[in-house]
Amino acid sequence: MLKYTLRRLLGMIPMLLLISIVVFFLALAMPGDPFSGEIDPNNTDPEYIEEMREKLGYNDPIHVQYYDWITGFVQGDFGKSVKYKIPVSDLVAQRLPNTLFLGIMSLVITYCFAFAMGMTAGRKPYTKLDHFIGGFNYMMLAIPSYIAGVFAIYFFSFQLGWFPFNGSVNIAVDEGTLDWWLSKVYHTFLPALVLGAMGTASYTQFLRNDIIDNSNKDFVRTARAKGTPESRIYNHHILRNSVIPLITFLGFDLVSLVNGALITETIFTYPGLGQLFLTSVQASDYPTLMTLTLMFSFIVLVGNLIADILYGIVDPRIRID
Amino acid sequence: MSITELNKAQTEKLLEVNDLKMHFPVKGGFFKRTIGAVKAVDGVSFDIKKGETLGLVGESGCGKSTTGRSILRLLDPTDGEVLFNGEDITKLTGKRLRDIRQDIQMVFQDPYASLNPMQMVGDIVSEPIKNYHKNRKGEELKAEVMDLLTRVGLPEDAYYKYAHEFSGGQRQRIGIARALALKPKLIIADEPVSALDVSVQSQVLNLLNELQDEFDLTYLFIAHDLSVVKHMSDRIGVMYLGNIMEVANKSSIYAEPLHPYTQALISAVPDASKIGQKRERIVLEGDVPSPENPPSGCPFHTRCPKAMDECSKTKPQLKEVKPGQHVACLLYE
């Protein structure tokens, strides 16, 4: 297993290198440069701008620029954010915990809803309740998260006043105290609900279908024949076989959480990586933009790796070496 | 055991099946209404005495396995009664139903699919014990399970392995150990060797025979292979299209089959001692009719070489034609 993981990690290097080239050229292809928004060309000496461009290396040949960037990058020097004027690593370190917190919370919400609904629907398939759960899920799946987000803010924040609609924490509370954590959960709940609702439908229907599928298997008949109580048959024999496909979802979830965070964080003005990404696109903040894109690509690759490894752990028939 | 005791034990009926019917509804049309029924088992009666083995033979789809499953209530029979030790078990529910499964266990046909791929062999075999005896656990239970595993000819370290790590024959041994775990009185063996190759078949059959003596078991042995049934059974029931055609002792059924269907079946068994001689084979024409729409009268009349006009009108009942030999055929009315 360790050998396999190492081999896969090594295999990521050429892939990441390729992605970095693509990211680099995409950033170059964007119109303008970081100065276009920051410096007023009518008030500033064009020679000064030219001098700054020269100093930052924007006039070097493209391959030299790429080389400078990538050598710094692998040594942990992600550059300095043009917009925020602080190192990108600091910027990411500030925002990362928020995004992680949002992601974990939305996963927990997804799991709670999906397991409750999937197990109910799978145990009594083709009943009214099953059809209702299915219909509800597909409706949730059909609503895009930017619509769901706006509706959630309208109902839960403006009409009912249950949850705040922006920020990640009440800034009046001292960091690290219990109140601070509670305030964080309180602020994160609504965006996490919107983000989590997206994944719930596929989880629920997969779990339901797999439970139905497994309940017709021969080994379930064996379990019944040896006098196993019905609840144990469903919770032990069937569920354990049915969670395999779900476990592999976890890796892909990392990917969809990153994607979802882009939109959800922006709607809820939640200071995470997704919001940072959008603002850095608007500001042509190359260093931040490239760092985040590479980071997201890395997460996608790691997500797939995690899925494969989890598969091996959960299913004893699959042993990776 | 003295002779009289032996006789008494032999005549005591452990299982009695009376007019068992299992019909599966056929749904069709836009609103999925019931438009018919597959009569998989259509009025089957037989009994099994304590300590004996009743073989149930018949071609594919004749309702052998369905009969076995209905007895254990893995399927809910449509009609009829199943008396186990004199008690009708077709109407039992809940805890009483679970209790009956302590005494009746089943060995399944497909050793590849019938074991949970997620469980260690030790868990598979010990689960029935845990289901009924909550107080038995820990080292004591483990020793008991290991004992069972060695008894069926598996190594002790099988306890910690998964089912997929074993061959077909070994898996069937796991299935047998599992069925034995609760020390049942009756074991329904549903084609236990049909998925195995011939050399392994005999090992498993011999194991079943040894275990029968050791654990004082009664078998309902379901198979389609006549030579396997001959090796295993004391008495044999022949099924065709959800009905029992003939029940008799092994010796009489092989020496002198009375029902035309039994005669055809037995004439089809290759006999190594008669190689080179011309065999007289009864070849049946046509296919088995659909159990959804069985023929009127005797279910076999469409293919019977000795069919009479009467056969398509009256359904024959099982009747004792010779001592111990029951036949359902109008030829003997």
UniProtKB/TrEMBL annotation, chain A:
Entry keyword annotation includes Membrane: yes
Keyword set includes Membrane: yes
Subcellular location: Cell membrane
Protein name stated in the entry: Peptide ABC transporter permease
Pfam families: BPD_transp_1 (PF00528), BPD_transp_1_N (PF19300)
UniProt topology in membrane: Multi-pass membrane protein
Main location: membrane
From TrEMBL, chain B:
One Pfam family in the UniProt entry: ABC_tran
Gene3D superfamilies: P-loop containing nucleotide triphosphate hydrolases (3.40.50.300)
Ranges that cross the membrane: none
InterPro entries referenced in this protein's UniProt entry, alphabetically: AAA+_ATPase, ABC_transp_ATP-bind, ABC_transporter-like_ATP-bd, ABC_transporter-like_CS, Oligopep_ABC_C, P-loop_NTPase
CDD domains cross-referenced by the UniProt entry: ABC_NikE_OppD_transporters
Keyword RNA-binding set for record: no
Residue ranges occupied by any ABC transporter domain in the UniProt entry: 15-266
UniProt protein name: Peptide ABC transporter ATP-binding protein
Organism: Pontibacillus salipaludis
Lineage summary: Bacteria, Bacillati, Bacillota, Bacilli, Bacillales
